[in-house]
Design goal:
By secondary structure, this protein is α+β, with helices and mostly antiparallel strands. It is built from 17 helices and 39 strands. Bound molecules: beta-D-mannopyranose (BMA). The site of beta-D-mannopyranose (BMA) has 10 residues, from loops. The site of beta-D-mannopyranose has 10 residues, from loops.
Length: 761
């Protein structure tokens, strides 16, 4: 992952470095930059593969040591003697003291920041030595925590600016690793240095769009700049103007007549404009780059209404039902993955009919390559700032560090058409109000006020101010969810994470009763494919295999899966059946939820399940396992995220069929229902023709049965949707708890949701 593409004026210092444990006389060993100490130790054969067997439980010693990395390099011969140079680290994880030829030039303390150090005066032509001493983040965390009279509720990751998931999560191992995790290079500083140029849409309709060009400029002289924007393909010039930067920021506007608008996946085409942006200072060309930009407006509508508070996205003024999932880093050692691994996630999303991904706040900020692919594929990105499941410090030094980080990240990411929303954090507000955090602080005078005021300063002050200042076309949402799942407002106000299913052990049917305005998290674990399980299992069966336990990070993960299996009447005889049934169970759970959410639109306007991907081989909530295999659930999701779907509920002995279309225009459809036995006897069939209005779910009809039909385990109901004489969607339901095996073997099969009349929608 690279935050900036290297240009010719940059001298790469990546590749092979040397490393050793600091404070020892151990020999230097080869290391890779970008990299992490765990992967370097593994590459040298000093530890086992952290992802296999139970190795993840034995590597904690690495986290409490300091590590040093060294590289010698020459400057290229053709470098201008008078050139001003800077040393750039695109990312250091996390506490890094940097020495260039013996002089300390940097003390870094934030994994999410780029660091730039003027370095001409320290450099020689040949034999330069760069030394990076990485201090144990764990020990620093402890010393920072001990300065306060209380431990902040949540987790230790809060004290430092490092990916929270490194401290262990319920789907990931704990490696509080360190490393030079992003590219390093030396760069010639141009006389007029342009950064963070973004072309964004301020307003757009089919007749006209107003766009803004924003950039930072650091210049030795105060010459005004000439900015030109043209269309790369037609050559048409949209703008030529002289501008004077205000401080380091500059901007200008231009208009595009009859723009071809960009739409999310499923709502229209992802039209892109190729704007060539030129900047001249006097006669010198100082910037020349093509920006691929989709013209579109994006707005989060969250305002009081007759139900509570709405939550939906308007794209080009059209309401969008959001279909997608939450994304975690696609590899634990995220430095090690190329852009293609990030891009792959976007391909999965587009193939699964998504129009949105949420980049979850306990991971890392998304790389540009990921955002660009999202733009190309029509996937909007809900981007959390990197804060999750904790209260955070709010002293001046901490806030200044955060401010530098978020200004950089907002300025980097704002250029992407796919970026839809900035969200302050994951579940910190929920934790404070619902997880007993306040009582943890109860005994200490003034602590609850101090911690909550600190929260307000950060998430209701600093972060929205930065968004407003540098990316005012995106909305800011302070915390996801707005209310915890125990509170009644969670289904009437804003976004919701519903964990009553899984964490609360409630039945899948509960999803139908807990339909929120926008569901930004919910989920259920399912086994990865057999090949991934075999990567870490020594061949024994559940639950006795030590390896299987080391790759299940939820405290009662297996018990929970097995309890739900039991309820459904699934009785696996061996590991293979367990894999199969657990995947079926997971698929059914998500199907219940997605149908409930979609078939309740426009009350509910979004469904993002937890979680799309894994960062190592593990049993988790993901739809796609670490090796990229789709679990059964992902196929269900792909089906249920199609533009028009139908779904069935059992209300007493009556089957109620509902349907919805999320297209932009009214849609003529045929909805068919067929009830038959596995022997092929058709008990019932019917078709209904109707026009569906966008995002307005309707009842299509009712099917009345005798109880003796719906208690048969050899009977199933098939629904299908036709548009333009083609079948576009199908789903199959069975009625009983332990269905006939032949029914289970049908595609997209799930237990019909039974609901009592008073709770039906
Ligand atoms: C959600 C996430 C993660 C967690 C998941 C499953 O709330 O935000 O914190 O992994 O629950 O427990």
């Amino acid at each position: 992952m690279a935050f900036a593409a290297l240009s010719q004026q940059e001298i790469s210092i990546n590749g092979q470095w040397m490393f050793r444990r600091a404070g020892t006389t151990d020999g230097w060993l080869p290391a890779s930059v970008p990299g992490a100490v765990h992967t370097d130790l593994h590459a040298n054969g000093l530890i086992g593969n952290p992802y296999l067997s139970c190795n993840n439980m034995q590597l904690a010693w690495i986290d409490s040591a300091d590590w040093e990395y060294r590289k010698t390099f020459d400057l290229p011969l053709n470098i201008d003697k008078k050139a001003e140079l800077e040393l750039v680290f695109e990312g250091l994880d996390t506490y890094a003291d940097v020495y260039l030829n013996g002089v300390k030039v940097l003390a870094a303390n934030n994994m999410f920041r780029q660091w730039r150090v003027p370095c001409s005066k320290y450099l020689k032509k040949t034999n330069n030595e760069l030394l990076v001493v990485l201090r144990s983040a764990l020990r620093i965390t402890d010393s920072l925590a001990n300065r306060l009279p209380y431990r902040l509720p949540g987790g230790d990751w809060a004290y430092i600016r490092k990916a929270a998931y490194h401290f262990g999560w319920d789907w990931g191992p704990r490696f509080v690793t360190c490393g030079i995790w992003q590219p390093v290079y030396i760069r010639v500083i141009p006389k007029v240095d342009i950064h963070n140029l973004a072309v964004t849409t301020l307003a757009a309709n089919p007749q006209k769009a107003i766009l803004s060009v924003d950039f930072d400029v650091v210049a030795k002289h105060k010459k005004s700049l000439k900015l030109t924007v043209s269309d790369t393909d037609s050559g048409k010039i949209y703008l030529t103007t002289q501008i004077r930067p205000k401080g380091i920021v500059a901007n200008a506007r231009f208009e595009v007549e009859n723009p071809r608008l960009w739409w999310p996946n499923g709502m229209g085409k992802q039209n892109l404009n190729r704007f060539r942006v030129l900047i001249h200072a006097g006669s010198e060309l100082v910037y020349d780059k093509v920006h691929e930009v989709g013209i579109r407006t994006i707005k989060l509508v969250s305002q009081p209404d007759s139900i509570g508070q709405s939550f939906y996205f308007l794209v080009n003024g059209v309401p969008m039902f959001a279909k997608g999932a939450n994304l975690i880093p696609p590899d634990f050692f995220v430095h090690g993955v190329s852009d293609s691994v990030w891009v792959k996630q976007v391909d999965f999303a587009a193939q699964s009919n998504f129009n949105m991904l949420r980049v979850w706040g306990g991971g890392v900020y998304a790389p540009d390559a990921f955002m660009e692919e999202c733009t190309r594929k029509g996937i909007l990105v809900w981007h959390d700032f990197m804060f999750a499941c904790s209260m955070y410090p709010s002293d001046a030094a901490y806030l200044a560090n955060v401010e530098a980080e978020v200004v950089q990240q907002v300025k980097r990411l704002r250029k992407h058409t796919s970026l839809a929303l900035w969200c302050g954090n994951n579940e910190a507000d929920e934790g404070w109000h619902n997880w007993g955090w306040q009582s943890q602080l109860g005994g200490i005078a003034g602590a609850t006020d101090t911690v909550w005021n600190g929260y307000l300063k950060l998430f209701h002050g600093l972060l929205p101010q930065v968004v407003m200042r540098y990316d005012s076309t995106r909305n800011y949402w302070p915390s996801s969810p707005m209310y915890g799942w125990g509170s009644s407002q969670s289904i009437t106000h804003g976004d919701s994470h519903y964990w009553g299913v899984w964490w609360g052990r409630e039945p899948f049917e509960r999803y139908a009763q807990k339909v929120p305005r926008f569901m930004s998290e919910y989920g259920f674990q399912g086994s990865p494919s057999e090949s991934v399980l075999r990567m870490f299992n020594d061949g024994q069966n559940l639950p006795d295999s030590a390896q299987l336990l080391c790759h299940q990070k939820h405290p009662v993960g297996y018990q929970t899966i097995n309890e739900y299996m039991d309820r459904e009447g699934f009785k696996p005889n061996d590991l293979l059946e367990w894999i199969d049934y657990s995947q079926l169970l997971q698929a059914q759970g998500y199907a219940h939820a997605i149908e409930a959410h979609r078939l309740a639109s426009p009350y509910c306007m979004g469904t993002l399940y937890w979680q799309l991907n894994d960062c190592w081989p593990v049993v988790s909530w993901s739809g796609i396992d670490y090796a990229g295999n789709w679990k059964r659930v992902q196929h269900y999701v792909q089906n249920l995220y199609k533009p028009v779907i139908a779904g069935a509920y059992l209300v007493d002995s009556v089957v109620v069929v509902r349907a919805v279309s999320d297209g932009v225009n009214p849609q003529q459809v045929t909805i068919g229902a067929q009830v038959q036995s596995i022997n092929g006897d058709v008990v019932y069939q019917n078709k209904v023709f109707l026009t569906l209005q966008p995002n307005i779910a309707v009842e299509v009809g009712k099917i009345y049965f005798n109880r003796d039909i719906i208690t048969r385990n050899d009977i199933y109901l098939k629904l299908f949707v036709e548009t333009d004489n083609e079948t576009r969607f199908e789903s199959v339901y069975y009625f009983t708890k332990a269905p006939n095996r032949l029914i289970l073997s049908l595609g997209m099969v799930q237990r019909i949701r039974e609901i009592r009349s008073e709770t039906s929608k």
